[in-house]
Known about the structure:
The structure holds two protein chains of two kinds. By secondary structure, chain A is mainly alpha-helical. Chain A contains twelve helices and no strands.
Amino acid sequence: MQELRQNRNSTIVWTMAMIAIAGMYISIYPSISQNAAVADVYNNFPEAFKKTFGISDNFLSAFSGIYALVLNLVLLTGAVQAMNLGTGITSKEVLERTADFLLTRPISRLSVLRQKLLTVFLLILVTDLVFMAVDWALIQALIEDPFRFRTFMTSTSSLLLVQLFFISFGFLLGSVLPRIKSVIAVSLPAVFGFYIVGLLDTVVGEKIKYMTPFKFFNVNMLAAGGSYEPGMLVYAAVLSIAALIASFVVYQRKDIPTI
Amino acid sequence: MDIIETKNLTKFYGSSKGIEDLSLNVKEGEILGFIGPNGAGKSTTIRLLLSLIYPTSGSATIFGKDVIKYGPEIKRQIGYMPSEVFYYENMRVQELLDYSASFYGKDCSKRIKELSGLLKLDLTKKIDDLSYGNKKKVGIVQGLLHDPDLIILDEPTGGLDPLMQKNFFELLKEENRAGKTIFFSSHILSEVQKICDRVAIIREGTLINIESMEHLLQNNYKRIHLTTAKKAEGKLFDIPGVSDLKVEKNQVSLLYKGDVNTISRIIAQMDLVDFMVGEPDLEEIFMHYYT
């Protein structure tokens, strides 16, 4: 399909970016984990800084510590990708002024948006599968610490879950906002807004997990072998589905601005 | 059967009016000219018909079916040419036309070849590299390639040179002869005059008249010029049906619609030097509706 091809290159770039981030940390881990001086440096970072970058106290004592940091960064990157795709694909016709062409063909808006959703799902799925395969291969090749495949799968799949939320949220913004001039100008503030909210957890406390997708799932615990809270999985799913439904309703009823 | 029918169609953009209470009908097999100045609501009406926008109130049907409820089904038989043409710019002309054809689930390659030959459109060029006029041609081919029963044109001739315009009108007449209904929006009166059977005039979002072209041009309006022997008096013409009255020294000029006996009796009272009655052109009638 048309849109798969159009988004192919950017998907490759995003996948490589996530692999690069993960690869960098995974590859330097063996050298710094042996080095007490490095551990000291990290431990002496201010508390706020550690929070910001998801550095836990047992950061270097086990691979899970640094993997949680990796995941936090990959989540952020993946969120931007998903949000860009979601917002971009829903507002693209208006931005490129091809809405008149597409929507005067004999297809319903419902099927237009459904195809767009399918396209985005497919692109994100490919991204995540490639990322996970390379990520796991790197861990196997470079890390001596025992890191179970199950833990890897559990913790890394949070990427897909967070991305699903941002796709839905992107669809919602892309449908609701009448005329998006620049996709990045919408998606970046949205994603970083949520990320910054996530940094306020010391202030807000436990409730933070309901307020930002970056805290829906406790990545640090997942990387240390924990499992998902069922309640939070449901919560994330409900929000995502609600946003998607809303975006479908709005997209069906909205006026296409004149060129 | 009416191909297009709108009932009290109204569209407000926030508080600003697009169109209000617009009721019109387009009969099967006719070419209806839809004229009005820029911003009168022509495009708004067309976008409502294509359900690109939704009405504030009122409704519209095409082929007897509600345009919103049966949008996708109706559009199978509609060819639409927008006033401004924007397509996927990375595509070549051939790719775009094939893409467009793919929505209709039938083989349109022969028709594409025919139409682009007639309009001298180069199919191998990138859309991005085309001039405004050539993009318009892509719009024409794209609108006609699936052999639609209803052709909706939104100011289609801008950017076409006179020769192409002639070819294009020939093409439309041919389609019309084959039974196709055409809804032709324009602010250029002479082109509407050339091709349309009936004319609907829209002004500030309201339909102010819909008449057959013949009726509009011949039966109703007379352009009258008088040269009087003495200084003319305008107040003689203070009767219903007179408009655009200009009195200057011994020259009188007016547009008249109504019983010719009434006006001839008035003129008979005057001492004339010269006297001329003619058909007004559409332009003059149009101006009359706008003043």
